[in-house]
Queue: 3 jobs
Job 1
Amino acid sequence: TMERPAVYPPPPPLPVQEVFDTGPLNPRYTFDSFVVADCNRFAHAAALQICRNPGRCYNPLFIHSKAGLGKTHLMQAIGHGIREQHPNMQVVYVSAEDFVNQLISAIRDNRTAEFRRRYRYVDVWLVDDIQFIAAIEGPASEEEFFHTFNTLCMNDRQVVIASDAPPRQLQIMNDRLRSRLEMGILADLRCPDVETRVAILEKKAAAEQVYIPRDMLEYLAKKIESNIRVLEGALLKLCAYSSLHGGELTLSMVDEMVADYSSSASERRISLNEIASYVSERFECPVSDLTGPKRSKDIAWPRQVAVYLARELTDHSLSDIGNFF
């Protein structure tokens, strides 16, 4: 007789934390490594207060800025600070993209109850890049985020959100959610001045245990203005060169090594007038029409292209660009 195949019991289901895993906190993103200056002093003070008394004040905290100015660093520093001061609290950090992807998987596998249990009973919820939820135009993810956010805030659980724009500029999100995001503290991070950028470079070089002369750091800080992440990347390149090759750096060597990192707008001195002139020539649309009140299709499209280029290639704010066009 043929042997009956062995029947193995199905593996036990994974714990909710493993099914809906969240992002770890970066050990480098702490308050000790965060350089405080006028450009971020208010946001930093609010973050410290949250660590002392999570859920009881400044809830939610909404941090917004352009890319590379320290939103994620400050948010994760809050996570580290709360874990140190309140070790019994459950701190969860997740990007909005991971939140949406996990929700899609939960709907597909009929595990939405587990998904909600994962996020609606934490003590501290840190959500990064919330603009992703607004951008995908998904009502299900927006509703799920709203109810999770509402449940936590109503139960005095701390919520911290980071975005590349304030709530009012997240046009796709519904008014109900946007008003909830504005009910706490809004804190923006602005571009640091050159002295602050030098201080950031000095702290980063010290962490890498590499000595870079002050004049080199000042030169680097003047070359890269609007993105701290890019600034630190350029410094790491200098540190790597110094460690691998030894010898003293010269300004010409620094200039050559960081050429790819330099702020394109400042290097090329691109102005809004130049962008308007180029688009006008390319689309055969007079500049007076680009900057005028007409909204016909043959003008609206080149105007949108010009606004996009201005946003990408200059450091002007959306308000300045809007006023120009």
Job 2
Amino acid sequence: LMYVCLCKAVTDKAIKQKVVEEGISTMRELKACLGVATQCGKCSCQASQILHNTLVSISEPQTSLARPA
């Protein structure tokens, strides 16, 4: 658990949860929903990266699962 936005007390887990459960896919939606990057803006880059990485991970097929030999 890591705080991404200190101003609004938003964690990386909260961002990931919104993407997976509510289909958030843009920074604009994330700002409206969680208030991330709306005050001092220092978290904008990191929040955007977490958003992107989460979107990529849910769109890719799970190829890291163990396969039979």
Job 3
Amino acid sequence: ERNDEVEHVSAGDIDMKVTIDGDLSKIKENQNHYLWFIKPKKAENLDITIAYDEIKLDYAINGLKCLDDEYINSGIAPELTFDGNAFTMTEGVPGNEIDKEKTIALIKEAIKNMDPVLTLENENCYLVPIDKEASEKEQKLLSQLNSYLDVVITLTFGEEKEVIDKAQIYKWLSVGTNNEVIFDNEKIIEYIDNIGKKYETMGQTREFLNSYGETIKVSGGDFGWWINRKAEAEAIINDIKSLNSTTREPNFLQRAGAFGENDFGNTYIEINLTDQHLYAYKDGNKIVDCDIISGDPVNGLETPTGVFNMRFMFTNYNFVRKDFSKKLKYWMVFYGNTVDTNIGIASCDWITNFGGTAYRGAGSLGSIYVNEADAKTLYMELPGKDFPVIIYKERR
């Protein structure tokens, strides 16, 4: 048995008897003892019958420690641990739990065949075998896991950094039933969520220094930093698997103008609905300063306020809505999920008087009308998308 344990079932324990069919003494008498060194010309066959008391055998077997639950140790599986610096594998204890039914059958078979020794390990009687090959696989697995821990990924958010190293990576790793490394995608997403709480700005209330020299608060809208969780989780896993220590920005679904408290950057459009006025800045320089006509609040079509992300810019666009159809030289969309709900900045060649109170009762469907010359400047000078459109009602 394991651990150099030896137990016995003796012939005397089970009243074993051997019966030989034939006269062995007569065969001996017929031999010439002077010719002992010469092989006989023919073999003499005798039938041997083995008999024993089966009740006593069952009693002897039941008395074996290897079959006694009191002495059985199911063992301890090897366990993967992290000591703060590296993964280690505790040495497992295979235990001594056996397949009882198989072992009993083998004992009876050994007695029947007069086999003097039955080695349980060789006959695979133990439920948890000692597998040297598995031990070698575990060492390879440890080497792979610890190589992953050497990876350092630095995510940059402007001047700010988030470092992903072994202190974080080990929490994401586990081992499957086939000794394969498994990455916990949910925990990685949770980590990205926590980063997002620090750096994402989409939809937040912001303080904004407007063109009137006043600091106001602007709420709502969809502009701001927004991390692409799925793509970033995949990128982190790929970096670790390829042992790629790197410094990079995370994957974003949407970018803002700058990192930090003022994520507007210095290229943006500012619209004051109360004053019916638009300002546009490129790299901090004012490029447009003009009156507008916004959505008609009297008819429930008021332009929404907030900080919006410029999505698309078109030229020579056929604008078709219910009861309204125009060919727009310039059309710049910053709001809405469908063609029918889109709101943007439209070049307007059918109106000559902008600003004032013209928008009340005679305003747009929600979009911002500007003259064609100013619309051209916006279209030509500003990026095609991904910069803020800041809309508010009054100076405070």
